[in-house]
Amino acid sequence: MQMPEPDGxxxxxxxxxxxxxxxxxxxxxxxxxxxxxxxxxxDALTAYACPPLAVVLPVSTEEVAACLKVCHEERVPVxxxxxxxxxxxxxxxxxxxxxLGVSRMTEVLETDYADRIIRVQTGRTNLSVTGxxxxxxxxxxxxxxxxxxxAIAGNIAMNSGGAHCLKxxxxxxxxxxxxxxxxxxxxxxLGGAHMDAGGxxxxxxxxxxxxxxxVVTEATLRILPKPxxxxxxxxxxxxxxxxxxxxxxxxxxxxxxxxxxxxxRPCIRATDDFSxxxxxxxxxxxxxxxxxxxxxxxxQLGVITQIARRLDPVEVRVSQSEEESARIxxxxxxAFGAMGQLxxxxxxxxxxxxxxxxxxLRRIGEMAKGYGLEVANVFHAGDGxxxxxxxxxxxxxxxxxxxxRLGEDILRLCVEVGGCLTGEHGVGVEKRDLMAAQFDVPDxxxxxxxxxxxxxxWLLNPAKVFPLETSAARRAVAAE
Length: 480
Ligand SMILES: Cc1cc2nc3c(=O)[nH]c(=O)nc-3n(C[C@H](O)[C@H](O)[C@H](O)COP(=O)(O)OP(=O)(O)OC[C@H]3O[C@@H](n4cnc5c(N)ncnc54)[C@H](O)[C@@H]3O)c2cc1C
Description:
Blueprint: H1 8-12, H2 14-24, E1 30-31, H3 34-37, E2 54-56, H4 61-74, E3 78-81, E4 98-101, E5 108-112, E6 117-121, H5 126-133, E7 138-139, H6 152-158, H7 165-168, E8 175-181, E9 187-191, H8 202-206, E10 215-222, E11 224-225, E12 230-237, H9 240-253, E13 259-264, H10 265-275, E14 284-291, H11 294-309, E15 315-318, H12 322-333, H13 335-342, E16 344-347, H14 357-371, E17 374-380, E18 388-392, H15 399-416, H16 435-438, H17 441-454, H18 468-479
Parallel strand pairs: 2-4, 3-4
Antiparallel strand pairs: 1-2, 5-6, 6-10, 7-11, 8-9, 8-10, 12-14, 12-15, 13-14, 13-17, 16-18, 17-18
Helix pairs in contact: 2-4, 9-14, 10-13, 14-15
Flavin-adenine dinucleotide binds next to strand 3, helix 6 and strand 10.
């Protein structure tokens, strides 16, 4: 993965840029000492790192606008940052950029239970949005596994999802309005506290735009009353393909579980050792959760277990208590941490049509064998959002590169079967150079023209999403 050479003219003007930023911020909101900048040198894609020129940590939309205005006038690139948990390198700096972090913008600005909305500053973490309303019986539905740490800012930029998004939709389905600051400091309001905005769906455009169009500082989010009850069941199979078939059959029959999560043997073993969840010894396992009244739950679980039993499962375990439900989820929720203790890994994020699951799982196994690497699968199976974890040893020469090549092949396979390079983690730098596998030149040109409108100087997160050679001419004009 390549990043553009930093602009020497910007590096040589660091003192002046810092001086101007200091004029619009309090002392503790500006970081420029080399040793302190290291804390911002990467996000959760830790294979790549580069300390930025400076970091600003504003506390309000006005301060964000003032910082952007300075950077616009000084023609310094800006990389917006929430909590830095991106797995795609979306918040990775370049040496000549200013990181604009919203982590100090955590206020709840408004809660309205009658209209079922909450308005927050976007540095607030995902889980603490639910935290602000749960005592009153409400919750915020999108639930990335990183929800304890990741910010609403990053969730909006990446259109993040999570285990329960099968039923409730991803971020875009739960975002009603946003305050966005454009690169020149202009503040715009998109959407509002109501379904659908008048005019073009610019909110839909900004959600998932990976910090390319503007900096989102405030968000109006949909909150929902907590369901009456929820219960998971665990289903083990002796082949991944059979588990994939079961997912496909459940979706086909027309019931909508709140979550269908998949783990294969390497993941089951690692998470069970890590958490003591008590998972069965099997090749693949599903956790299927349904919600509703007791009668609704019983009815849905009855259909699901019937479908599973037709496929000769190793085990079907329907939770009988809150404690058992928590144990069933325990391993799944700690899956990335558990795998990280054992191996280095690359976490992929392709989506596929659910019906293709058995075929794609088989092909991933074959491809992994061909590369001599192991792949562990843990993912949101219900919506076809796959997270193959390619296991490798970073201390062994060439293994990272081999793992990256396998990753590219797997993502190409996702596109081939009618899916997409990214479900919820975004393109960032990780899939930037693969974009041509999904989009031809006119497609990419059309997408870049959208950025031209919002950010004509190509200063916002400029080295991401579009292959470097495709965006080179635009970035060069911006640098002149
Ligand atoms: C262990 C682990 C588990 C994860 N599980 C999930 C999961 O289940 N589902 C999922 O979807 N993701 C998951 N992720 C990925 C990650 O948490 C999400 O992409 C998350 O939304 C990133 O949020 P963040 O605040 O950390 O954003 P950052 O990493 O700081 O930034 C992400 C992107 O958003 C842009 N951005 C940040 N702030 C702003 C802003 N204010 N305005 C405009 N653009 C901005 C950045 O430029 C960057 O492109 C996981 C990550 C980890 C490490």
